Amino acid sequence: MTDTIYALSSGALPAGVAVLRISGPKALDAAAALVGPLPEQRKAVLRTVRDAQGQMIDQALVLVFQAPASFTGEDCVELHLHGSRAVVAAVYRALEALPGLRLAEAGEFTRRAFENGKRDLVEAEALADLVASETEMQRRLAVEQSFGGQSALYMEWAQRLTKARALIEAELDFADEEDVPGSVSDQVWAEVGDLYLEVEQHLAEAKAGEIIRDGYKVAIVGPPNAGKSSLLNALAKRDVAIVTDIAGTTRDVLHVDLDIDGYLVRFFDTAGIRETDDVVEREGVRRAKDTLEQADLVLLLQEIDSDPQQFAVTGDAEVLKVGTKLDQHVHRTAYDLCISTKTGDGLDKLRDLIATKVKQTWSGGLVPGRQRHVHYLKEASHFIQDALNGTELDVRAENLRGAATSLGRITGRVDVEELLGVIFSQFCIGK
């Protein structure tokens, strides 16, 4: 925190504009060494950028943000340069030559924002998700979490637990005092019970957060030559998988990511499931079965009028029976849907069906965004449950304290030092 750091905070070069951020105790002096007298705070002014020898590097817009009114909470300067690799490299060399300055590490600007109380951990993680978002729903989920709504919910729960604990401890410590009720259990435990239900309902939405961030997984399975690879290619509208008439062509799991109505949908093409003596194909079948277990939706493909095969589908995935090669056969009611990748018949209906199902997972609202959040929410839920089921008041109060601490660890309010390196190392340089 004593170093002054700098890095490119805009996109990949070359670009129209490159935003270079400098943050730390020497940020103002470092910027002044490059551009001369600095403009007043939050006023963009055009300046000439020069190196230590006075050679002109570029002209840039200069913005000054003095602590604590900056992204990091420190003195911060932004140089809006022309987005040339050579320009940015020259400015880097000029900054590197100044004492006390160094290139920022991954996520270091955001970590400093956290350390200085500008953002909590939930907001910081959501900011990383917002930067990395590729679909509309990923953006919406990140926005829901990055601007304080999620944190406010967890803080409100923690405050309710603290209030309940205070009332219980008042009963324990001042039971003989006239101004303390003989028992506060009725008012405390009814509210704690309501809170427990709220936490459990929130946890039930965790799958939705996982699907939005990591994608809705659709496994395409079936016997050899059922048209699995052809369907993957048709959905992707390009040749992702090799298609032949030879059974067992697909040996590994192939996947393609598609944006369907703002949702990330990941389609997995798997090896044909059958008994085989081929070692490589057998491994492909094993991987196909693993993919099946992790899927949110299974498309069970089978050529229309072929002998039926039975597949054991484990897990909670919904299964759609899809008849293939409709161009060669008549539609059969034994299938949920019949398609032809050759003529395109049924493909639009299949896409619409998948879109309908993925939209049912999340349409907005606060949901747990990461496994770390889920872990501590479950921990808090267990503490609350133990408090509700306990008999000794002092032990029940301690369980409520444990629940509040678990919620605090989600936002970073308590005991999170060991988490920081892991969390902020996932950020890009310059953020």
Automatic annotation (TrEMBL):
Belongs to the TRAFAC class TrmE-Era-EngA-EngB-Septin-like GTPase superfamily. TrmE GTPase family. It holds the Pfam family MnmE_helical. Binds 1 potassium ion per subunit. Exhibits a very high intrinsic GTPase hydrolysis rate. Involved in the addition of a carboxymethylaminomethyl (cmnm) group at the wobble position (U34) of certain tRNAs, forming tRNA-cmnm(5)s(2)U34. It comes from the Bacteria. Coiled coil: none annotated. (6S)-5-formyl-5,6,7,8-tetrahydrofolate binds at R21, E78, K118, K431. Keywords: Cytoplasm, GTP-binding, Hydrolase, Magnesium, Metal-binding, Nucleotide-binding, Potassium, tRNA processing. The lineage of its organism: Bacteria, Pseudomonadati, Pseudomonadota, Alphaproteobacteria, Hyphomicrobiales. This is tRNA modification GTPase MnmE. Residues 215-359 form the TrmE-type G domain. SMART domains: AAA.
